[in-house]
Amino acid sequence: MSRSTLTPISYLVLGWTSFEPATSYELKRLSADSVGYFWEFPHSQLYAEPARLTKLGLLEEKRELTGRRRRIYSITEEGRQALGDWLREPTSEEPQIRDIGLLKLFFQDALEDGNVVALAQAQEQAHRKKLSFYEELDSTIPHEAGFGRATLQAGLIFERAFAEFWSEIAAHPPTAFIRSDRRARDKTRKRVAHE
Amino acid sequence: MSRSTLTPISYLVLGWTSFEPATSYELKRLSADSVGYFWEFPHSQLYAEPARLTKLGLLEEKRELTGRRRRIYSITEEGRQALGDWLREPTSEEPQIRDIGLLKLFFQDALEDGNVVALAQAQEQAHRKKLSFYEELDSTIPHEAGFGRATLQAGLIFERAFAEFWSEIAAHPPTAFIRSDRRARDKTRKRVAHE
DNA sequence: CCTATCATGTAATCCGTTACATGATTAT
DNA sequence: ATAATCATGTAACGGATTACATGATAGG
Predict the structure, then answer these.
(1) Which residues of A touch B115 (CB under 8 A)?
(2) pTM of the model
(3) Which of A63, A79, B78, B155 could bond A75 through an S-S bridge, CB–CB 3.0 to 4.6 Å?
(4) pLDDT per residue over A57-91, tens digit each?
């Protein structure tokens, strides 16, 4: 029990419930509609995680008596404390950018007949699409929308930068680098045989 | 067996071995020193994944006869095919940005006594540090370094943009948005009781 | 020769993903 | 009424993360 640390999803759930009690489905909607734009959390986790947090005493579960008998979670004092501690502690952790497009770009060296331009165009288009979505959002939400708005600015910046990046790649596609350089490493290798 | 799909790590391993055969440790070094800058893969995966790919017939394993008896993996024709198919297929998938800093920023609304400036400064510093690391790298690697260099450009752009973003937050910290708006939702809620 | 770090894994557990399932609501 | 979609979960599995462990190599 003791060693179960809190993960980002834990803080996501604590964060939302710190505003007001919520069901798993509400957590899902809220998240999909905000943080989910840049960091997706699978909905099954938003059903599993509150149960875990309840066991840890950071949430409390109530249940509807009729109809869907939904579980409604509210944050406890310990929960609020844990969330506050986490929020107050600055972090120097670097973001992970899990970008399939970049990964594909990186390994294009493996192909002689690749089509980088197609990749770059698909990526540029995807980023531009998200960018206009963000712009639309930005123009509709109130100006005093707190930190949610600040996060949205990060999204705007990111999408702009990457649309720009991919457009540049499409315009001036790099050429593959042929690698053939196993000498150095082979010196350190022992004799090798099958199986 | 059949249903085991290939994940990003699979393609990472296929990608590296497509250049030349490698041990798990080499995969780890190579990755940590390139893609790992923006997308980290735990080293234990780089021991587990090649075994999996070997079972699927996409890699072949040889073993040293003496000393450490390391396992050396080379790509098979099927492997090369799978990698090529993947590389040639453009993707519109959007990147996931798993950024603890942004997540913390987003939920600062939950605090009345938060210290956003400290957070923003820590983040800005981290991004600037990585940025100068990239710049150093960029100035040392050969100009015809293929797609690896292109990927590095993305890194530079990203770090610059985010350093800029956090510096802006530090200079003009947003203020919290007080939420209290449970009316709408409560209308749809059934009666509730403990346990 | 001793120590530190590099290199090479294994184990246990938990998280994440996908798929399935089904009861309410809303739209036509 | 029926179909479609919304809402609310559960199950199963495999991948991901963290810890642990230990044998080589190099540096002092």
Answers:
(1) 88, 90
(2) 0.90
(3) A79
(4) 999 998 877 666 789 999 999 999 999 999 999 99
